Amino acid sequence: MSDNTPESNQGSDTSSETKSFSEKYSDVMGKVNETLGNVDWTQMGKYGKAAGIIAVVVIAQIIIKVVIDTINFFPILPGLLELLGVIVVGQWSWQNLRTSENREAVLDKVQNLKKTYLG
User: Fold this and answer.
1) In whole angstroms, what is the distance from residue 21 CA to residue 12 CA?
2) 0.85 exceeded by pTM
3) What share of the chain is helix, strand, coil (3-state, %, to 5)?
């Protein structure tokens, strides 16, 4: 057994741990600064843009999810939005598909878009 009391051991251990931590912190920060000094920062523009685009996409997805969850939180709102969608599709169909001339015009538009984008 040692002659030191537990209280005196704790005091000496704390000062040695603090010194050890500060030395470790200084070593780690020195290595980080040295590593950052060796980086070719002219190439970081490409990586920064890619990381920025990824971050924007992730944030946009989170915002969209929150908005959709908020809409779904209200019991009547999703049903009303479905009804609105059915009404809009019905109205568009009535205006554009009622006569054969309108149907042919829609088919011509679809064919032109197909040629434009698919070749």
Assistant:
1) 14
2) no
3) 90, 0, 10
CA atoms within 13 A on the CB side of 79: 3
> How large is the C-alpha radius of gyration of the chain?
33
Q: Where are the domains of the chain?
A: 8-39, 41-73, 76-119
At 51, the amino acid letter reads: A
Q: Would you say 71 and 77 are in contact if contact means Cβ atoms under 8 Å apart? A: yes
- Residue-level pLDDT, tens digit, the chain, 119 residues: 455 555 555 555 555 555 677 788 788 888 888 887 887 777 777 788 888 899 999 999 999 999 988 888 888 888 898 999 999 999 999 999 999 999 999 999 999 999 998 87
- Both structure tokens of 60: 């946009």
DSSP 5: -
